[in-house]
Amino acid sequence: MSDRPRVIVTRRLPETVEAALTERFDTVLNPDDTPFDAPRLAQAMASADAVLCTVGDRIDAAALGEAPRARLLANFAVGVNHIDLAACAARGVAVSNTPGVLTDATADIAMTLILMVLRRAAEGERMVRAGAWEGWAPTQLLGGDLSGRTLGIVGMGRIGQATARRAHHGFGMRILYTNRSEIDPGLPAQRMELPELMASADVISLHCPGGEANRGLISAGLIARMRPGAALINTARGDVVDEPALIAALETGRISAGLDVFEAEPAVPEALRKLENAVLLPHLGSATRETREAMGMKCVANLEAFFAGRPLPDPVD
């Protein structure tokens, strides 16, 4: 039996990350990439010294067990709304995450969605693939310019500010934001309360944490305040939005949306999948090789620190 700490990894990771884990720990990988169900998560918590988990793992009190052997969840993500932090604290299980390294990749996906929605790119791509394109026409799939439009950022942290810089300096958009604290004064942006922002922006981009504190933050009432023709972009977490209310608003054709996350992903409501005015991506926010490798190496660094008795580089309170 190995005297190295045992680490169970719940999903396949980039090859360089798996190699680093295998070199440093008694690592149990998931070569077929089958998602862990609740019993398998519970077994992992009971049989490993640490579990490297992902956003697809729902780690609640039952999955943790009453007295887990594992004392660290090294979370391959920034967001932790899939982890019951109170239950972890009660059982003495530490949690780490991977902040900082996915900022640019996620901001790029936010801008991708903004461009796809305003320029109706997904509709055009579907038209071509379906063999329904009959040639160029002066009024075909008319979208809107980004330049001169107003972008409202909900949650002006690293990713929100990176998105704002791209939108303002790259596309000439005016920036509004709502945030608990002031931001870098070098970024030209106007702070306002959320209801006012929802009514003032042409595009609203969500960059706030998920979890109970923000569940349903973008409510039916706030969605109703959006301007006709406005777009809602979500690269944060699906539970931040009242999904049924968003679907109802989209079905009227009054607004549009670009979504990279969903409330019960990977399940996406059929009503949402049918809508032409919704661009839907499969949680691609951090999906670049460079970013996913950097996220994995942050997990490795947190595991190394934990087993060496040092403070976690990226602790989650």
UniProtKB/TrEMBL annotation:
- Where the record annotates domain D-isomer specific 2-hydroxyacid dehydrogenase catalytic, the positions are 8-316
One Gene Ontology cellular component term attached to this UniProt record is: cytosol
Molecular function (GO) terms for this protein are:
glyoxylate reductase (NADPH) activity; hydroxypyruvate reductase [NAD(P)H] activity; NAD binding
Tell me where the signal peptide lies. Answer: none
- CDD domains the record matches: GDH (cd05301)
What region holds the D-isomer specific 2-hydroxyacid dehydrogenase NAD-binding domain? Answer: 111-285
Mark the transmembrane ranges.
none
Pfam families assigned to the protein according to its UniProt record, in alphabetical order: 2-Hacid_dh, 2-Hacid_dh_C
Q: Which UniProt keywords apply?
A: NAD, Oxidoreductase
Family to which this protein belongs: Belongs to the D-isomer specific 2-hydroxyacid dehydrogenase family.
Under which name does UniProt file this protein? Answer: Lactate dehydrogenase
Annotated organism of origin: Albimonas donghaensis
